[in-house]
Structure formats: C-alpha cells, structure tokens
Specification:
Blueprint: H1 7-17, E1 50-52, E2 56-57, H2 65-71, H3 76-83, H4 90-105, H5 113-122, H6 131-140, H7 144-150, E3 154-155, E4 158-159, H8 171-185, H9 192-196, H10 203-218
Antiparallel strand pairs: 1-2, 3-4
C-alpha cells in the first residue's frame, strides 16, 4: 500500500520500502549457457593443488575430476573409476580393478580402429550433448554386423529401438545391443552380476561397456581418442 499521491513520490516510497543491498525483483541473474571447460582449462599444472610434475597433485582426489573428464583431459582410468565409484559388488570391483590395471599400459578407448572410425562418422551430425545417445551409438558401432542392422535407425538424434530387428547377431553383438538399450532407454537387460561374470562377457567387451558407461555420465570426453598423459 502506498501513501503518496504522485508517481514520482510513489517510486521513491517503493525504493524506501525495499530491502537494502538487494536488487529489485525482475532483475536477477539469468544463466543462458554454462561455461564449457576445454582441455586447456583443465591442465593440472595450472591447479593450485598441483605440487610439481614429479609429485603431481597434493590431494587424494582431484577436485576438478568431473570437469576434466567432460573436457577430455582425464585418463581412461580416471574416467572409468569415477563412473563406477558407487558400485560395491565385490566380483565386479575385482574385475574392474583388473581392467583398470591393464588400461594403464594399454588404454582401450575403442574396440579397434574400425570402431573408432565408424563411431566418429556416426556421431558427426548428432547431438554430442546427448550423453545417452552417444553411449548407445558407441556400443552399436563396436560390432560391424550389429551396426549394419541398427545404423539406419539412428535418425534425428534418436534411436528407434522399437523398429530394430536383429538378424544373425553374434553373442557379443547381442550383449552390446542390450547394453545400448539399457543406457539409452533405462531398461534392465544386464545386471552388475552379469558384467562381473567372465563367462558371459569377455574382457574386451567388458572394457567397451565400461567405456560406454563413462560416456553415459560424462560424454565423449571420457574416451577422447588421443594419447593422454597423467599430469596429476
């Protein structure tokens, strides 16, 4: 309620009734686009926690790990380990640790060169910010026969799983297909116990699935295909 008569005095009264040091309503800060970190932004040598090239990081866990993975500045080991941190199923943890140990010497970002090339071409015109889509395409392109059956159903930034009919798929191809559906649609074809079982999922396919799960959480930066060095 205002007690002044003129417009000018009412504006003055409005100002006097407002809370000191607060902006008037309707003048808040609007975030139109979040800053996207680049690999250069995530250089560990610029971090205040970085001690030296020899000693690396002074913290037990990198405080910028999420940004580094998304920007493609983290190692494959870091990306996968961070993705699976919440899984406490012992057989799976044991198998994961073995995979991470092997990846230190020979990181497997893609199943093979054909997989890398097919995936790169497949996602060239797709929305790379759709992590579920990227993860599913990563899995579908890991098997040539599987991609020949499913590639035509990746249209306009979506996968038409309801129209896909697999023909002559191998056991590995079917595993990749089921995992792609799980990550894209939220279905539950595979369990953590299945992933831990070496008789169901062979080592190389296990690695591809772990990578896909990292993509589902952090995007293609998790498996950015280039030689990386651990600067921590």
């Amino acid at each position: 309620m205002y007690f002044s008569d003129s417009y000018e005095l009412r504006q003055l009264e409005k100002l006097m009734r407002s809370i000191p040091n607060f902006r008037p309503r309707g003048h808040g800060v609007v975030i139109l686009r979040r800053y996207e970190y680049t690999e250069k932004d995530c250089d560990c040598r610029a971090c205040p926690h970085h001690i030296s090239r020899k000693k690396g990081c002074g913290t037990d866990k990198c405080p910028c790990i999420n940004e580094r993975i998304t920007a493609g500045a983290a190692t494959l080991k870091e990306a996968v380990a961070e993705t699976m941190a919440a899984i406490q199923y012992p057989p799976f943890v044991k198998r994961l640790n073995q995979y991470l140990k092997e990846s230190e010497e020979n990181p497997m970002y893609f199943k093979n060169e054909k997989h890398r090339t097919t995936f790169t071409e497949a996602v060239a015109k797709l929305d790379k910010k759709d992590y579920a889509l990227m993860a599913a395409v990563y899995l579908l392109t890991a098997d040539c026969r599987l991609w020949s059956c499913t590639g035509r159903y990746v249209q306009r930034n979506e996968i038409l799983f309801e129209n896909i009919r697999l023909k002559g798929s191998t056991a590995n191809g079917y595993t990749l297909y089921c995992t792609a559906k799980d990550l894209y649609l939220g279905t539950k074809n595979l369990t953590v116990a299945d992933l831990a079982d070496t008789t169901i999922i062979e080592p190389k396919i296990f690695g591809v699935i772990c990578n896909a799960m990292a993509i589902r959480r952090y995007g293609v930066g998790a498996v950015k295909f280039k030689e990386r060095t651990d600067n921590r």
